[in-house]
Write a structure and sequence with these properties.
Strand content: 25-35%
Number of domains: 1
Distance between the termini: 31 Å
Structural class: alpha+beta
Number of helices: 5
CATH architecture: 2-Layer Sandwich
Shape: elongated
Order of helices and strands: HHEEEHEEHEEEEH
CATH class: Alpha Beta
Number of strands: 9
Helix content: 40-55%
Radius of gyration: 20 Å
CATH superfamily: tRNA wybutosine-synthesizing-like
Strand order of the largest sheet: 3-2-4-8-9
Largest sheet: 5 strands, antiparallel
Length: 202
């Protein structure tokens, strides 16, 4: 598969404009803005999508099932004890599951050499589960996955599965998992910055 470079550059301009628009309307997480700008500075690659990691609580039979499930809580910034107590204080339709997911990014690369370079940088920064996601005329999409995750059940019917007397400890662990994911983004940013400096010195 040969990437159409003209098409790829048009896509790059379109995604850059979308990033600026998302920033203007408040949709973009400021915590990842510097990293996105840094990636746009690299030759032959641009970010298509990104998530800094999030905490989600769903009412579902199983945490991976979408049909019939509903999201009751979602945050990219953390969970409080009062929020958790409020949620589990209500009986779920099915079961309450909490999921903490780490950062994930999709990058578009203009060729395989650039894709392999980004994979090497990402894996060195702790994104061990990354790989090439798709190939097409618009570019080679690389998926960067941190591997940081946590899934546990909170409540099933009348049964509550966490110790309410130690709710603050539980919330602290949940938020720590989220922070671990954010630290991977920091390492990725440093790896890319080191790469940029190395190229400029070379």
């Amino acid at each position: 598969m040969i990437v159409d470079r003209d098409l790829w550059f048009r896509e790059r301009d379109r995604f850059y404009s979308r990033m600026i628009e998302d920033l203007y309307i408040g949709y973009l997480d400021h915590g990842i803005l510097d990293l996105l700008k840094m990636i746009f500075r690299l030759e032959g690659v641009f970010p298509k999508s990104s998530c800094t990691g999030r905490i989600t609580i769903v009412d579902s039979q199983y945490p991976w099932r979408r049909r019939g499930s509903s999201i009751v809580y979602k945050s990219h910034y953390g969970l409080s004890g009062s929020d958790l107590l409020y949620i589990i204080g209500k009986k779920p339709l099915y079961r309450y599951w909490i999921t903490v997911s780490g950062p994930i990014m999709h990058l578009s690369c203009v060729n395989l050499k650039t894709a392999h370079k980004m994979l090497r940088l990402a894996r060195d920064a702790g994104f061990k589960h990354s790989g090439i996601f798709s190939l097409g005329r618009k570019g080679i999409t690389v998926e960067l996955i941190s591997g940081v995750s946590m899934i546990s059940i909170l409540r099933d019917g009348e049964e509550i599965y966490i110790d309410l007397d130690r709710i603050d400890e539980y919330v602290s662990r949940v938020n720590d998992v989220l922070r671990q994911g954010r630290s991977r983004l920091y390492e990725l940013k440093n790896a890319i910055l080191k790469h940029i400096r190395g190229e400029s010195n070379g």
